Amino acid sequence: MLTSESQTDCLYQQEASRTVFRVDYPTPYVTDQKKGFGSVVNKRLLIVEDDPGLQSQMRWCFTDDVEVVVASDRGAALTALRRFEPQVVTLDLGLPPDPGGAKEGFALLDDIVRLSPATKVVVVTGREDRENAVRAIGMGASDYYQKPLDADILTFVVNRAFRLAELEQENRELSQNRNGTTIKGIVAASPQMLSLCRMVEKVAPADVTTLIIGETGTGKELLARAIHDMSHRADHTFAAINCAAIPENLLESELFGFEKGAFTGATQSKKGKIEMANGGTLFLDEIGDMPMPLQAKLLRFLQERVIDRVGAVNPVHVDVRVVCATHRNVEELVSTGAFREDLYYRISEITLDVPAVRERDGDAIVIAQSLLKSLGRQLDRPNLGFSEDAILAIQGYSWPGNVREMINKIKRAIIMAEGKRVSASDLQLRCDDFVHDGNVLNLRQVREDAERAAINHALKTSNFNMAQAARLLGITRPTLYNLTDKYKIETSPAVSGA
Ligand SMILES: Nc1ncnc2c1ncn2[C@@H]1O[C@H](COP(=O)(O)OP(=O)(O)OP(=O)(O)O)[C@@H](O)[C@H]1O
Asked: Where on the chain is 4-aspartylphosphate found, per UniProt (predicted)?
């Protein structure tokens, strides 16, 4: 949607062969004479060009599936932008009152990027005007086109901009519609995470000791907090302690507290984390790294719900719910004797397995889009989007550090991105499937090869389930069918031995 600003009055008037918007600007913008408004078309193109000859040449480059509006100056272009909401604008930088320079064109580009960040702007420059083209890309234009007019190249560049706008729109919808979890802070679209979130919703109100297992950065602590927040203990403390981060000799007093004089330096009594969490939830992160002597003490607490502060004579009763997490394979630790079997059974009344990001169908791009939005706002770059190569790279990368790694990469990319689109290289990613040896005909070929490879990969990964493959690719199912038709890709596995 465009930012609402004061609208310019205009009079809508039908004429025999064309529809004209008369606006109180020196030059009106005019809709496509071939079709007029009201045609059933989705693609809307605004051509901003002050030369009447070029206007009509450009207008006739596009077939009936593109609705075209023409504007001759900045004012008319802004009116058309607001009323017509084109997905793509071609913008000649040399506009009146500065037709020989680029000042007015840059001012209009700035307006478009600000008012309608999703609109793709293709800047039209003279042959000698490379410097301005590069500056325009830096300001947020998606592409540029050099005069003189060549119908094939212009339509190719404009169609590519339409495709990009469409992909970004689909991804926006995906991130808005598919976040089916009610758990605060968790962004998820995959069936794997949605079903885990449903489990969390069921487990939270039951006062059971829960073990959350998953690779680093998958959101274990986030889920532990969610369990607390959705339980009847939500109004009490959530106390977290990382068993791997605290030296063994301090961990006991951190957990259980100590009495005055219990050891040198204990000048006064202090509650431990377990007591602090009284009435609430104790989160023991990296429980797999808990030293053996403390495992015995923790087991006693879980069995009897009493603790002994270090140096204390009398035990203290504590009412806490315990949630543990680890990235380690606890069963293996038990089999090697590094973890007590009886403690393992105590802490795992319910076990939640958090899948790695690479195991969640379609989540990588949904989480990345959400992070780009939230981190973009934090870093004062709220209108950034991902380029096509970034989307492919995000989907193709294995994310060994999971969401934490994603946060780091996206933060960096937001800082590094030069235009309004974050590229794969801003993210320091490359998608091996799409690397070419430079021996390519043109960009169209590169893009089509990339699309073909991504579709094949998604179909195989999803076992030829079209809905799932479409989700993996961040596109709709009809778009996937169109693409498989276009590239003549089989939509079912090959049957051998026929
Ligand atoms: N599904 C998600 N949606 C949005 N943000 C997420 C998601 N999962 C994790 N995060 C964010 O990723 C970061 C890491 O999450 P968290 O600390 O919960 O992971 P962890 O599994 O406990 O990591 P570690 O094992 O390293 O302690 C946090 O900033 C968290 O908010």
From this structure: 92
